[in-house]
Task: inverse folding
């Protein structure tokens, strides 16, 4: 194919978007607050749920009570993470998988890593898929990549697990480097809606991966565009880089577009501010934007000077006549 033969190598700095610690003050449980709608759907009032949990008769009610303490229920029940932990722990002892998983998350956030991992193992062994990928995440952060890979594989319907699995295969963490397996894992993650997987696929095609995956900037651009439409900061940044360094289009043409690069960079900066995960992308985008704007301004000055010279030359020719 002519396009493949004419592909240029983008001088991109490969950003290893490997997820880092999620232990922050902003904790998110897999169920989300909407799960509390089940209280009304099952005809259990808040007071009834509290009473049932305190009576020690129902692990499901203790689980719901833990959620209510975690999220808070306004005047009825104030947010209390310690009480949430207590309720989840009581249900966890009775074998309630979701409570075990949530207890592990809250303990992990408090840096009680050993207890957190132990409870997450119980939940994962009880076939809770959220727990399986989260256990993989815990093991990943503790650099136990080999076992993390096993749990990511078990959570095959979880988009984040598939993304992590792709990272392990792409960079040879806990397993021999295998670009084909990485490609398949990222594709699965993308199918499940993980935008970071789409971004990593784009990087693989933008740079090429040995003899396994040929460099293809057309495919890379399409992948970056796909997650850029969803305001993914890194995809926006790399689309800008492609516009600056010369993107190869499907019609086999190579074009540089500083105006479009500026557009993507402004969006990348804007959406990187909403997540510390992409703060370094925002810094890179800001630096590149400054360079692009200087080029645009210089180009505009040259155009104005050329127009002025053309007018002056035309005036002189008219005078000579």
Result:
């Amino acid at each position: 194919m002519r396009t493949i033969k004419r592909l240029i190598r983008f001088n991109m700095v490969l950003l290893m978007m490997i997820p880092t610690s999620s232990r922050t003050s902003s904790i998110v449980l897999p169920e989300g607050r909407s799960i509390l709608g089940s209280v009304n759907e099952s005809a259990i009032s808040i007071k009834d749920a509290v009473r049932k949990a305190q009576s020690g008769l129902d692990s499901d009610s203790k689980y719901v009570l833990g959620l209510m303490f975690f999220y808070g229920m306004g005047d009825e029940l104030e947010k209390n993470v310690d009480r949430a932990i207590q309720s989840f722990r009581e249900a966890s002892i009775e074998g309630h998988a979701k409570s075990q998983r949530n207890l592990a998350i809250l303990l992990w956030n408090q840096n009680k890593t050993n207890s957190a991992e132990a409870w997450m193992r119980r939940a994962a062994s009880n076939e809770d898929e959220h727990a399986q990928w989260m256990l993989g995440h815990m093991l990943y952060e503790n650099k136990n990549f080999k076992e993390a890979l096993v749990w990511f594989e078990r959570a095959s319907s979880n988009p984040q697990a598939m993304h992590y699995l792709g990272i392990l295969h792409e960079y040879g963490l806990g397993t021999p480097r295998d670009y084909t397996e990485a490609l398949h894992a990222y594709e699965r993650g993308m199918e499940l809606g993980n935008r970071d997987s789409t971004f990593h696929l784009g990087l693989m095609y933008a740079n090429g991966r040995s003899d396994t995956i040929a460099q293809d900037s057309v495919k890379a651009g399409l992948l970056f565009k796909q997650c850029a439409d969803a305001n993914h900061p890194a995809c926006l940044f790399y689309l800008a880089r492609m516009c600056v360094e010369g993107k190869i289009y499907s019609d086999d043409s190579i074009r540089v577009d500083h105006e479009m690069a500026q557009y993507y960079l402004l969006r990348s900066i804007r959406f990187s501010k909403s997540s510390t995960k992409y703060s370094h992308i925002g810094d890179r985008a800001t630096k590149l934007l400054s360079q692009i704007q200087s080029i645009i301004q210089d180009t505009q000055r040259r155009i104005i000077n050329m127009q002025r010279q053309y007018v002056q030359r035309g005036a002189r020719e008219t005078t000579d006549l």
Q: What stands out?
A: DSSP finds 16 helices and two strands in the chain. Residues 1-25 have pLDDT under 50 and may be disordered. The beta strands are 247-248, 254-255.
